[in-house]
Amino acid sequence: MSRFIAFLAASLLLSLLSPAFATDKVAPYFSAPYTGEKVQEYKIELPVSRFEKETFNIPADCGKLNSRLLEGAGHWGNRVERRLWMKADDDCRYVNFLKKYSRKPSRDYVSSYDFYNARITDLPLRPGCDLDLLLRNPAACPPPMPGMPNFSMFMSSTPMHQSREEDLKDCRFENGLFRGYIYHTGMGLRCIRDPKAPGYRILSVDFANVNGDDCQDAVLRLVPVGRGARPSLLILPLTRCSDDEKFFLPPGSDYPRFGPAPE
Asked: pTM for the whole thing?
């Protein structure tokens, strides 16, 4: 049973690995329960009491699912069913986050960017902390918000051995995957890629106006990879209001937090 639960948790996340942009910028893709098929809606049957189950069409029935969760229905069922409650709840909260504001932005400087091959230097290494401060005094930077990726964890505090300088590469994702270590050198931030190192995989990229301003936003869903990484879903909302700017967190937005699946 434990192996099946681990397989289910992994499949719920990894089924989104195929890089694809949604044609509707506020219509994200999900992984269908059990099959892992990439869909924009799915039906799921969940226990709402000891002897009763109810079918939900996600995302159309997200309001009904939320009501059942407030009534305590998410505690019913076996471990697999409770994980599916968590998955459906995460999917609904993500949709609500994307569709919170109906205002259509007039400026879009994010949807043409290839996030699946993004340069790490284009992304905030730690939300709310610029690179100079991070390098001078990491303790002065605010901690990363729960449920958001923290790229500064890959910054190496150990001086790089001279013989490894030829291994230095541009710090970037490749087809949605980054695994390696980040070094600050005379050439700026450079990386040593290591397939066994910790990192992040981008599961999907969606576009929406998540804070109601005049600039389009991108929302990256990621999962940690590497030894000891838990199959937890992370999000990184990003925006910019000109092509010359680096990406930053959309101000004034409430970010959904995805907790670990219940045991």
From this structure: 0.76
